[in-house]
Design a protein that fits this description.
The structure is a homodimer.
Chain A: E1 4-6, H1 12-15, H2 22-30, H3 33-44, H4 49-52, H5 61-70, E2 75-79, H6 83-95, E3 107-111, H7 116-125, E4 131-136, H8 143-160, H9 162-167, E5 169-173, H10 179-187, E6 190-193, H11 207-215, H12 220-235, H13 243-258, E7 262-267, H14 273-287, E8 295-298, H15 309-314, E9 319-325, H16 353-370, E10 375-379, H17 385-406, H18 417-431
Parallel strand pairs in A: 2-3, 2-4, 4-5, 5-6, 7-8, 7-9, 9-10
Antiparallel strand pairs in A: 1-10
Chain lengths: ~425, ~425
């Protein structure tokens, strides 16, 4: 299995009275059985497109061609916000080092915001004739994405002409007629259809996440295989042997029985920084409704030990911690005896950077537990396509099952419409000079 | 004044019963008066070095020379973690666009973690002969920073020879003898002394934050002047006219009277992303002790409207929001009539990216308030050295005064020592093969 779950430090016998009581937890865990059965039945009927993605292959043909076309650029800008960007960011992070390009692959920039200063700096710096653009809005009506697209496109047209500009773009949107689709059609820009049955924050395994991954040079098949492995095991299991159900029950039991309303996801892997933000949206937007839900926080090991650990250990006991760990011993640079000829740091001699990272992650796990903080560890064998697919499917299922326990719909986000309407009103008022 | 505070939407008369009652709030606010008096007295006696930084100038002479020396590099790597890095990150973000260098200035990379994959990618990519290094550890004993330094230094020595390597480095540490200082002395690496009276998370206005800022091309004087403006106003005021005291009282009154234990800092300015992380450490590590404190979260506008706003509006009412806003109307690219000839997006025609950003930030402010969520707005006129200095001093004072209200010491972090000791033990066990 790709993911190894250690949940022992969530229980009273390991961490004292702040941990869960096994019998009370069991009652919550058993409430997940109907969710597993329901998901299995839906999967059997192929009624939820998300669950069919792990074995889909035909939908990758057009993205492969588009990825090939855009890869001729020096850099590719992804225009899109929220879940139109985070899945791709998470996957592309596996292929991109923070300090340069993978040889022969364009550098991906994910523009998920509308700060004019960022955009001005961008347009000043890039050679637009050697830049590709992927524009993603599932509804096709996202104001920020349309603003990005409609201000950048004329610049590219001015730089290289209208026809060549169209060849530098691709658009992902739903099949229904919408502003982004109509604008793309008018200009002859290639459109990739996104299945409207796959909600935004569950779209990372669709072409929304996989096309950026393919541009970055990843293979989409093992990503989906990793997801399939988790899905298959989850839907054939009792709650106790179904890691997503067990995880959902932990979160909800801690909320109900211990008033723990914050969940901290803390990977000890730099390349999972975006994964943490992807999870943060998935969890917040799926569960935060009807006055319930818990608040997700993305922390990073080891750096946030020097920022947040004081609060985590000695502040209010209102958090549940999930550490994502990866064995590192022996990897990275090693401290030579002569370079640390100082008794005070003898403990570092002959140790590698990976040794220290291993020691730190183990120490944080044990210290949280010793301070009565419920903490689980999910250990991955290595970071590759298969593992990230498995992680994504795990957390999508955990989120859906947690929503069932909390009695909320994991697939809607009704509260954000009001703000969108207000923003349009304010924009209209500027228009009329009010 | 650089900062304009609007706290009206924290009170019941604006947002309903979830807001604060004015009379009850007043009792908390008046409790801040002794804190202001105490800080004024300390400042009068020059007894807290942090408060003397805004008017200090002599301590900038050596950093100016070191910045000049390191600026001859193509890139400068800052090795250091937590507060040894976040202040510099926050300031350098003003000078660096995310897409390239300011002409004639080296690119700064802040390496605040010890992931071997990140380091391997780095060493593979960079020309070490054209790279400068700034190593920061105030105690001089931070395991992660020593590991970074002791594994990178031999690589540089191998690439360009021992003597030239030393010229590429500079070290910031406290004056007492410590492992980092001894290692630097042995190799003839220049050392800059950090005042041991200035705690790590309060060090952004010292050379720990200002040297990276100077390398990036910023002027340190207006940063300190912005801080001085806030400090002077704060210490001469009654609590009602002292924005840091008012802000501290808001946080604590919401915790005590409304059980609001999470504070969300949400800038609508990309370049303040690191500022949000700097604040997050300042607040968490200063207040999170004795079972109290509130949990800081960094969100970003507008992108997190598409990620976290559903939770913020419709999840549990356990959060206090601080939006940092900046007027943007009329800035950035503008949507031409012909590029949006579609009735469905007529609201975007002739609007600029900055117009949309203004409308969005106003809409989020009003929507949070309309949903009974306490929210304040801090508006900055523009983002420059003066403003960032003002913001930093504001939040340092707000944190110190909040600590007084909560009865905790804002300057210590006793809980994290246990984890550090454990990590060393585990490393030692690896050494002996256990």
């Amino acid at each position: 299995m790709s993911l190894v779950h250690d949940t022992s430090r969530c229980f009273a016998e390991a961490i004292g009275t702040d941990g869960l009581d096994h019998i009370a937890f069991e009652r919550v865990l058993q409430q997940t059985a109907p969710s597993i059965d329901k998901l299995a039945a839906i999967h059997e009927k192929a009624a939820l497109p998300l669950l069919e993605l792990p074995t889909a292959r035909d939908d990758l043909i057009q993205p492969a061609a588009v990825a090939e076309r855009l890869r001729s650029s020096d850099q590719v800008l992804l225009l899109g916000t929220g879940d139109s960007s985070l899945g791709g960011q998470t996957l592309a992070a596996l292929a991109e080092s923070p300090f340069g390009l993978r040889p022969g692959r364009p550098k991906l920039h994910f523009l998920d915001n509308i700060d004019p200063l960022t955009f001005e700096a961008l347009l000043r710096t890039l050679d637009l004739s050697r830049t590709g653009f992927l524009v993603v809005s599932k509804s096709g009506g996202t104001a920020e994405t349309l603003m990005q697209f409609l201000t950048v496109l004329p610049e590219v047209e001015r730089a290289i002409g209208r026809e060549r500009a169209a060849e530098r773009f691709a658009v992902i949107t739903e099949p229904h007629s919408n502003p982004l689709r109509r604008a793309a059609e008018k200009r002859g820009i290639e459109i990739l259809d996104h299945d409207a049955g796959i909600g935004g924050r569950y779209s990372a395994l669709s072409l929304v996440g996989l096309l950026p991954a393919m541009i970055a040079g990843l293979d989409p098949i093992p990503i989906r295989q990793g997801a399939a492995e988790v899905l298959d095991q989850a839907l054939q299991s009792s709650p106790r042997d179904c890691p997503p159900a067990f995880g959902a029950a932990l979160n909800v039991a801690l909320l109900w029985q211990k008033r723990i309303g914050t969940c901290v996801l803390m990977p000890y892997v730099d390349a999972l920084a975006s994964f943490g933000l992807w999870f943060r949206q998935l969890w917040a937007e799926s569960l935060g409704k009807n006055g319930t839900g818990t608040t997700p926080i993305r922390a990073m090991g080891t750096v946030d030990q020097h920022s947040q650990l004081q609060l985590y250990l000695a502040g209010p006991g209102d958090k549940f911690y999930t550490l994502i760990l990866m064995p590192r011993a022996g990897t990275g640079g090693r401290v030579a005896p002569e370079s640390a000829a100082d008794e005070a740091i003898a403990y570092l001699v002959q140790r590698s950077m990976g040794d220290l990272l291993d020691a730190e992650q183990r120490a944080t796990l044990e210290t949280l537990a010793a301070n009565g903080r419920p903490v689980r560890a999910i250990t991955i064998p290595q970071l590759d396509e298969h593992t990230i697919g498995a992680l994504m499917m795990h957390f999508m299922l955990e989120t859906i099952i947690a929503a069932d326990l909390l009695g909320v719909n994991p697939f809607d986000q009704p509260a954000v419409e009001e703000g969108k309407r207000l923003a349009r009103d304010y924009l209209a008022q500027m228009a009329s000079g009010e």
